[in-house]
Amino acid sequence: MQASCIFCKIINRDIPAKIVYEDELIIAFHDISPAAPAHVLVIPKKHIANLLEITADDNKLMAHLMSVIPGIAKTLGLEEKGFRLVVNTKENGGQTVDHLHFHMLGERFMTWPPG
Ligand code: AMP
Ligand code: ZN
Predict the structure, then answer these.
(1) pLDDT of residue 29
(2) Percentage helix, strand, coil, to 5, in the chain?
(3) What is the domain count for the chain?
(4) Which of 9, 97, 100, 101 has most ligand 1 atoms within 8 Å of CB, for mutation?
């Protein structure tokens, strides 16, 4: 928990979010400014600033996070056509919130390469 972190505030219910999945380790909620018709952020409740801060101590947490994504995709109706999973990391990755988050983007075709 980091007091100034907007995603920690969502976890603590200090600010609202449209939550689509939650368990003891993970929470997933709709992005406030969707970049696709379906845009959900999947985050660990543990405050990890970005992908580079993950350590071996987080192995179980990260495996668990990955394991809940198929169920979230099914909840969102994304299993048939698929979706894109994105982790923007630091400046060049375009990261704007310093709490590790996995963007799930769907319900439209995603071009490649990204902008
Ligand atoms: P990134 O730019 O990869 O760090 O992604 C941060 C994402 O968080 C952006 O897509 C924002 O629209 C989203 N975001 C910021 N504040 C909120 C919020 N209060 N609730 C939901 N999503 C948010
Ligand atoms: Zn945080």
Answers:
(1) 98
(2) 30, 20, 50
(3) 1
(4) 97
| 50-59 pLDDT tens trace | 999 999 999 9
| Nearest in space to 45 (alpha carbons), one of 70, 67, 64, 71 | 64
pTM: 0.98
CATH of the domain at 11: 3.30.428.10
112, part of any domain: no
Distance, in Å, from the CA atom of 31 to the CA atom of 54, rounded to the nearest integer, reads 23
Q: Which domain holds residue 38?
A: 6-106
101 is catalytic: yes
Does ligand 1 have an atom closer than 6 angstroms to the CB of 37?
Answer: no
Q: Please report the atom of ligand 1 found closest to the CA of residue 31.
A: 22
Q: State which of 96, 98, 103 you would mutate to test the pocket of ligand 1, scoring each by most atoms of that ligand within 8 A of its C-beta.
A: 96
